[in-house]
Amino acid sequence: MKRALSRLYCAGCIALAGLIPLSLFARSAVEPGQVAISVARWLEQGHYTREKLDEKMSARFLQTYLTTLDYNKLYFTQKDVDDFEHKYASTLGDSVLRGDLGPAREIFARFKQRVEDRVAKNKKLTQKKYTFDSDRTVEINRQNAPWPKNQEE
After folding, report:
1. What Rg do the C-alpha atoms of the chain give, in angstroms?
2. How far is residue 6 from each of residues 13, 48, 89, 108, measured CA to CA in Å?
């Protein structure tokens, strides 16, 4: 239970710190980087687990952020996940502690692009005529499935 709450809290903090619209901050004196630093320091010093944002926590942050964005593994591919892990699995915590939201924004930009691509593809697929007479099935809950290897899968 403690671990689940910690993961949920971490995901929420990353999502809030990394994805708050810049227009919101344009009207106030608060900067997104400062929010990230404050949240990171609070996690290290004020959260009941008092875990440091080290390489292990960075990897957990990254996995939590990816699964929060793409819960059913419909948008990111295994290559995307591997790229993000290679770039950020050991450094995401340091980035947040420095107030650098670049990694969160890069990941979200890729997610947004994948969503837009999928919507465009689905619009094209709606133009086809379907008979629904095959025995094919679709996995509805892909939460425990592996990430798709590529966009076509």
Report:
1. 18
2. 11, 9, 18, 22
Tokens standing for residue 45 = 């010093």
| Short-list 118, 21, 30, 39, CA closest to 72 | 118
Which token pair is 70?
Answer: 């793409």
Please provide the distance, in angstroms rounded to a whole number, between the alpha carbons at the two ends of the chain.
34
pTM exceeds 0.90, yes or no = no
- Taking only the tens place, the pLDDT of each residue in 43-60 is 778 777 777 778 898 899
Closest to 104 (Cα-Cα) out of 32, 18, 16:
18
CA 56 to chain centre: 17
